[in-house]
Amino acid sequence: MARKTPELNTSSMADISFLLLTFFLLTSSINTDLGINRLLPPPLIPTEIPPDIKIKKRNIFVVLINTYDQLLVRNRPGDIRTLRKEVKLFVKNELNDPNLSEKDESINIPHIGAYQVSKGIVSLQNDRGTSYKMYIQVQNELTAAFNELRDELSMEKFGAKYEDLKNVEYQKSIRTAIPLKISEAEPKDVGGKK
Amino acid sequence: MSRFRKDEKPKVPGINTGSMSDIIFMFLFFFMVITTIRETTLFVKIRVPMATEVQKLEKKALVSYIYIGKPTNTIYGVEPRIQLNDVFAMPTDIAEFVFVEKTGRSEQDRPFITFALKVDEETKMGVVTDVKQELRYASAFKINYSTRKGDFFRSE
Questions:
Q1: Nearest-Cα residue of chain A relative to residue B149
Q2: Set of chain B residues whose Cβ sits within 8 Å of the Cβ of A25
Q3: Nearest C-alpha in B relative to A80
Q4: How far does A31 lie from chain B, in Å, by closest CA?
């Protein structure tokens, strides 16, 4: 008669695999890389004189950040908390205020119809001494202003937020109607080395 | 009547734990697959700033990282430094880094390479500006400022 092989006790196997599981849970992090996307402009060619683009003063929304992280918005001391609202007012300009941005001639955008695209440009300039935190805050507020405008138009036309639009064509139309116009001026070093 | 009564109490059958390990292993493999262990060791301290208008970085393979922050080891100084891959770098090294990163990818992927700037929030813009200028001259225009998701007004 053949001897019976004793059964392997597998109850500790679960413990071992739990141990491995907790190890991996602790050592690894699910990569969630988030951030603000930007496109840099092509570099200036030193031998070439940059083309003199005439932009009316009313169409530029200048934001300066100095070395002490203070804001100068359209030649007046500004506040980060009101920046988003001011940018929205400037780009939208519903009442056609002569101090705020002009509008282009009405063009026909697919899915939206006749729309007057704003000529407004936000120009951002920072100092070398500006903190990165402040810079990101300002960038965030500027982006937020444009995103909110896009959401508003999208809600009005398609009944959903811009991010939630299923149709890529609709998103494209919204982008044409409200382009993200944030320009960064060549940096300055006013605050000096500290 | 008593002949129908059982002598011992009814036994509760033991739960078979043999498949437990299989389930846990499944979990384990799931986590192993979805997570990535950070390949580069950071020599700089980085706490990225908060922002609300964040977008997800898609296509991990097409993202290259540039780290800027104060060195964790003070023998390298206390001023913010740039880290590329595993070494400290100067802003002038960016052009070469961009070239290497581009040649490492296939030709049709090259225009879509994003350079993610992981910068500590305490850093001054000077060094960031230098890096941005170098990226411009190296024709790497797609950048991403890495941030955490959160509202800085509420957390102040």
A1: A34
A2: 31
A3: B153
A4: 7
Query: pLDDT-based confidence at A31, cuts 50/70/90?
Result: low
Give the whole-angstrom CA distance, residue B61 versus residue A83: 36
Please choose, from the candidates B48, B53, B52, the residue with its C-alpha nearest in 3D space to the C-alpha of residue B66: B48
Regions of chain B with pLDDT less than 70 = 1-8, 36-39, 154-156
Query: What CA–CA distance (Å, rounded) separates A132 from B127?
Result: 10
**CATH code at B108?**
3.30.420.270
Does A110 have pLDDT greater than 80?
A: yes
Q: Which domain holds residue B74?
A: 44-155
CB contact under 8 A, A140 and B149: no
pLDDT tens sequence across A136-184:
999 999 999 999 999 999 999 888 899 888 888 888 999 999 998 888 8
What's the number of domains chain B is made of?
1
Within-domain flag for B2: no
ipTM value for the complex: 0.76
All residues of chain A having their beta carbon less than 8 Å from the beta carbon of residue B146 are: 33-35
Query: Amino acid identity of A3?
Result: R
